[in-house]
Amino acid sequence: MLAPILLAAALAAKAPPRPLTQAEAEAAVASVLPEVAAIRGLAFKRAVPVRVVDDAGARKHVLARFRSTTPEAKIRADQRAYQILGLVPPGTDLLKTLLDVLEEQAGGFYDPPSKSFYLLDDMPHAMTRGLTAHEMTHALEDQYYDIDRRLAAIEEDDDASFALSAVAEGSASLVMAETMVRAARDGSLTADDLTAMQESEAGQAKKLDAMPGVLRKQLLGPYILGALFLARGEAATTESTFPKTDVDAAWAALPRSSEQILHPEKYWDPALRDDPKPVTVPNPSRALGAGWKRAGSGILGEITLGALVGAPSPSAQDQDAMVTPSAWTNAASEGWGGDRWELWTKGRSGVVLLETVWDSERDAAEFEAALPRDRGDFHARRSGTTVAIVAGEAGSAAAAVLTLMTGG
């Protein structure tokens, strides 16, 4: 649900002593571009316009960007499906939650349609070097890999979109980390600057940590897990270690699931390569009865599906946990093979049908055993490596739908 918009947002601290000027923004970009190109190992093909914007302008732009990449019907369907499955509390407004957190955290963004870089005017001056490096890495890679074209090709697959975002954000985060190491070394980033960042609104991350855990994983995952994925699971990064060959390889043949991001060996090791299996939900019209219509569908993947079976969601304050893949998933959600959900509605009533497939019967049984047992509107059944779930207002039709989904 959230991954695509994150191609246009970078985490940063806020509250500078005075607004950033257009001249300062342009100077910051000009000074960092050679460093970004050198670390990334690519030359800019064309200049990237730089614009300074305030918080209101940034929120308006990000909202417009999200709506341009995500149809309104999909936003409504995703929100309803997440609520029915119990992934988020009833009444959660997914889009507002995202915008509120970005307002707390974002210091700038790269906009693929206009090929422009926007810096917020309340961006701390000490952070402009790192943030510029992050966002200009997006701009640079967009010139070579056409981010929006690739997003459009997988717009119906949220899990594949998460994986793409992990490559983009992971690459930009590694470049940013290297520039900040250099900044600390040359004295342009001081200990006082780091302390101010930690004590800032963004550094405290109150809105980020207050959002539903599954959304926090979708928001932070591409940055943290993406960097780990591109480093093949190695958390530490130091100067001159940017994995250019692997980043280029990942863009040439994108990972296809959050499972591959969470478990890098399932992408990088040919012997362990584990691409997702296509899953189809059988038409439930006859079992549900007259009047029901399909209102949406999608793919959750291991990163999101894990929220159903108790997989953890690291706090932004727990730096050690954040760089540990096991802190983002659990045994019950591992062994994922593929899934698909569909939202069906009749008037104000809604039902979510979720079909999941697993690598083995043991994986399927472990997932089924960890599913919620205390909800009267949540029904599950396993058959071999398939686990089917019917959640919502299916009533007496739930058993028939489960039989249809599990093949008997």
Describe the structure.
The protein is of the alpha+beta class. It folds into two domains: 3-268, no CATH class; 285-406, no CATH class. 49% of the residues lie in helices and 14% in strands. It has 19 helices and nine strands. Strands 5-6-7-9-8 form a five-stranded antiparallel sheet, sandwiched between helices. A hairpin with a 4-residue loop joins strand 3 (106-111) and strand 4 (116-120). Helix 1 (22-40) crosses helix 5, helix 2 crosses helix 4 (94-105) and helix 5 (128-145) crosses helix 6 (147-153). It is globular and about 65 Å long. The two termini are 32 Å apart. Mean pLDDT is 88; it is low at 4-16 and 200-204.
Short summary:
With 408 residues, the chain is of the alpha+beta class. It has helices at 22-40, 55-69, 72-85, 94-105, 128-145, 147-153, 158-186, 191-199, 201-204, 206-210, 213-230, 244-252, 258-262, 265-268, 285-288, 301-305, 319-322, 361-370, 398-406; strands at 10-11, 50-53, 106-111, 116-120, 293-298, 336-346, 349-358, 378-383, 386-392.
Overall SS class: alpha+beta
What string gives the helices and strands in order?
EHEHHHEEHHHHHHHHHHHEHHEEHEEH
Total of DSSP H or I helical runs spanning 4+ residues: 19
Radius of gyration: 22 Å
What is the end-to-end distance? 32 Å
Query: How much of the sequence is in beta strands?
Result: 5-15%
Number of strands: 9
The tally of domains stands at 2
**Helix fraction?**
40-55%
List keywords for this structure.
408 residues; 9 strands; alpha+beta; 2 domains; four-stranded mixed sheet; five-stranded antiparallel sheet
